[in-house]
Amino acid sequence: MTATFDCCLAENAVARADDIAVFDTTVGLTYGELDAKVEALAHRLAAHGSTVGARVALIADNSAHHLVTAFAVWRAGGTLVTIYPSSTESELRYALTAAQPSLVIAGMRILRSVVAAVDGLGVTACELTDDGDVRGLTSLVDHGDLAPVGADALALICYTSGSTADPKAVMHTHGGLLAAAVAYAEVWHLGPHDTTLVALPLAWAFGLVTTSMATLTAGGSVLLLARSNPTDMLHDFTDHQVTFFAGVTTMFVKMLQALEADANATIPTTLRLCISGGEPRNEHAFDRWYQLTGCPVHDVYAASECFPVVTYDPVADPMPRPGCAGRVVPGAHLRIVDVDGHDVQPGTPGEAWTRGPATMSGYWGNPELSAATLTADGWYRTGDLVDVDPDGYVHVLGRLTDLIIRGGANVSPAEVEAVLTRHRDVREATVVGLPDPEYGECVVAAIVLEPDVVLDTTSLRQHCAESLAGYKVPTRFVTMPELPRNASTGKVHRREVANALSTPDARANNLA
Predict the structure, then answer these.
(1) Percent of the chain whose pLDDT exceeds 90
(2) Which of 121, 126, 401, 488 is the most exposed place for a label (fewest CB within 10 A)?
(3) Distance (Å, whole) CA 409 – CA 406
(4) Mean of pLDDT values over 6-11
(5) What span, in angstroms and rounded, lies between the C-alpha atoms of 95 and 89?
(6) How far is the C-alpha of 198 from the C-alpha of 203, rounded, in Å?
């Protein structure tokens, strides 16, 4: 039985040697070519000393060469450390200091910042060139056999997005990553017929494992984009007959904007599966996407620490349920518990505790946080508020830390946001709690309006009141030209929204 993704890659190199595995705007590699390049680079890494136990950081934009390098680290026996190429110099230094790699491989665009970040750390920095060479490694290769790597060996250290706190270094094993990739491929029915467009950063497990590796385990093709430019993605969907795309909600919203702004824009017609994740659903935008493309947007719920957990099987559920993330994936487990860790009664919201095919080993260098996050019997405490309906569909109500407590009553921002985005005038919305002298916190909505629309707070309030209890209806609506987002993942940066709405100018603006 295949134990690691590297074994799976080697098997596909024989079974599908001439089929396209990965490609980008400059190069395409068959499974045979991909395996050969991984093998050659793995030997060079081994000659450098990047063998079993060594950590190798990879910081580069998405490309076929990026995947070659990542897979070569694994074949050489090293542990891959992924860091977002959008990171600032201080963020790079934080991540590299924490992971303490023996080698850093950086793309040409980010190399200067990486060199500055590793100054004084005693770490070698090599350049991943645009033609796929790793400049700085020896070109002398020992063609002896590389030692196989076990399923329990540490494969990956990836960083959380850091949208609510300092990024955490999540550890995963080889066996867990393969199990997760295979689980996603099975539940989504991925196969050799699929071409997957990946614009999510490969530094994120969503881009590396959930989409890229899942497709490759199933024998499909992966198209990698360095940027999530909406116009480029729309063209690539058609030019390369893309069948599968996964992204954060914002990507779909921006592609819709591009489609609706240009009557001659290219409308995708070959998509059979679209998945949103990482952000609350925007049902209004997803309905419009379905009307234009004929492909509904299903959902996935997981975390860098544990995946997969919840998603849709598009055969069992051809259409997603509004506001729902799907059902628990075969091989995954979900508990919903109260503040004391006891299972709640069916239909009662609580904190999600999860186990998935890939459940983290812990946080690198932080055993205290690991012990606080993983239970003694292996459950991951997500910090998310969820409930499950009688049919087994999971509804994600938001982060427990994001709950707004208004006059002693709990308000889930995600619930209010879902209602707001169903209003015809609202393109995007984020809801936060701000200090209130009478009720403790007030509910404030930051909204991005559709083009040429004037804010109508009466209409918005009435719309919310039709679906929400009175205490959940926002007391203020503030318009913003765009929502601040995490530069790496594209998720809304809720703290920045709250800070922006706390300024004197914002407090004086758009009172409902």
Answers:
(1) 74
(2) 401
(3) 5
(4) 97
(5) 10
(6) 12
- How much is the pTM? 0.87
Whether 259 and 291 have beta carbons less than 8 Å apart is answered as no
Whole-angstrom distance, CA of residue 357 vs CA of residue 338:
24
The span from the CA of 179 to the CA of 3, in Å, is 9
Tens of pLDDT, residues 218-269? 999 999 999 999 999 999 999 999 999 999 998 999 999 999 888 888 899 9
Q: What confidence tens digit (pLDDT) does each residue in 369-384 have?
A: 999 999 999 999 999 9
**Backbone torsions φ then ψ of 93, nearest 5 degrees:** -65, -40
Distance CA(422)–CA(221), nearest Å, equals 35
CA distance 178 to 282: 31
Please state, in angstroms and rounded to a whole number, the distance separating the CA atoms of residues 186 and 179. 11
Judge whether residue 52 has pLDDT over 80: no
- β-pairing, 306-311 vs 297-303, is antiparallel
**Other CB atoms within 10 A of residue 236 CB:** 21
Q: Which of 296, 319, 304, 283 lies closest to 200, judged by CA?
A: 304
For residue 20, the surrounding DSSP H or E stretch is strand 20-23
**Helical ranges in 49-158 per DSSP H:** 64-75, 89-99, 111-118
Which residues, at least 6 apart from 384, have a Cβ–Cβ distance to it below 8 Å? Answer: 351, 352, 396, 397, 398, 399, 400
Continuous segment of H or E residues that includes residue 309: strand 306-311
pLDDT tens digit sequence for 474-486:
999 999 999 988 7
Interval 489-512 mean pLDDT:
71
**Residue 506 C-alpha from the chain's centroid:** 31
For the chain, how are helix, strand and coil distributed in percent, rounded to 5? Answer: 30, 25, 40
Cα angle 256, 286, 252; round to 5: 40
440 strand-pairing partners? 436
- In angstroms, the CA 243 to CA 121 distance is 44
Compute the distance between CA of residue 121 and CA of residue 112 in angstroms, rounded to an integer: 15
pLDDT at 162 (0 to 100): 58
Read off the pLDDT of each residue in 282-298 and give the average, rounded to a whole number: 95
